[in-house]
Amino acid sequence: MRHAFEEIIWPRRKLIFVGLLLIVLNRVSGLVLPASTKYLVDNAIVAGDMDTLRLILGAVSLAVVVQAITSYALTMLLSVEAQHLIASLRSQVQKHVLRLPVRVFDNTKSGELVSRIMDDVEGVRNLVGTGLVQLVGGAITAIVAFVFLVRIDPVMTALVLCPLGAFAFVSFRALKTLRPAFRERGQIRAEVIGRLTETLGGIRVIKGFHAIEKEGQIFHAGVLRIFENVKATLTTQSMLTSMGTFILGLASVLVMGYGGFL
């Protein structure tokens, strides 16, 4: 983690700082519309105040424009930089691989090396690109929403946080299963792609030794390994989604019950 911070994040600190400011503007402007509904109903529609209505409509319109501009700027700033970083890392990994001893190439499939060079660096977009936007943006939205909820009713907020805390615990446990599975999937795909690349490149030798059936069986076994890995991750993800739906529904029931008994 320290190496990633020193080599990837710190050299781009100014870019990331500007990106963080844009994320804050984007999320705050996105909260203007839901926050304006109270004033729209209570102060404008019910009271019949047209000046307040025009003011609210102008503020919401300005917020929408700001949100659209910051969304475009974030895509051009962070997402494009993340892709540029991925391209640079692929070039660095390729140069490093070419400098390895010949015995490494004798013991490793060429297709596996190709897959590692092209695919393994994709994770850095979570440090600079969309992952950073989602993490910081989600945190800002959660903090602002929590403050508003506490100001409205602390007891109702606690009723909502209890199921959400349980969901956070379940999600943390599920991620411990998903993270190694995704890492293993990359390794399996690299092995299968490497074997397939060598098979297609040496098709004359395979046909000459009548090894088509054997290669087919090996490839089928590799594809089944990928399927079993995907099946396990999809099962965990579906259980997590189902649990999230249940817990959010439970939170809604608790809020409705609390409001009904008041």
Notable traits:
262 residues, mainly alpha, ABC transporter transmembrane region fold, 2 domains
Task: Explain the layout of strands and helices.
Blueprint (H helix, E strand, L loop, with lengths): L1 H8 L3 H33 L4 H49 L3 H6 L2 H10 L5 H4 L1 H23 L1 H48 L1 H6 L3 H50 L1
Task: Please describe what this structure looks like.
With 262 residues, the chain is mostly helical. Helices cover 90% and strands 0% of the residues. The protein is elongated. The model has no long low-confidence stretch (mean pLDDT 82).
Regions with little confidence, pLDDT below 50 for 5+ residues = none
**Might you state the CATH topology name of the largest domain?**
ABC transporter transmembrane region fold
Looking at CATH, the homologous superfamily of the largest domain is ABC transporter type 1, transmembrane domain
Alpha carbon gyration radius: 26 Å
| Amino- and carboxy-terminal Cα gap | 50 Å
Report the β-strand fraction as a percent range: under 5%
How would a textbook summarize the main sheet? Answer: none
Number of strands: 0
Helix content: over 70%
What would you say the CATH architecture of the largest domain is? Up-down Bundle
H/E series, N to C? HHHHHHHHHH
Mean pLDDT reading: 82
Write down the domain tally.
Answer: 2
Helix-strand category: mainly alpha
Globally, the shape reads elongated
In the CATH hierarchy, what is the class of the largest domain? Mainly Alpha
Q: So how many helices?
A: 10
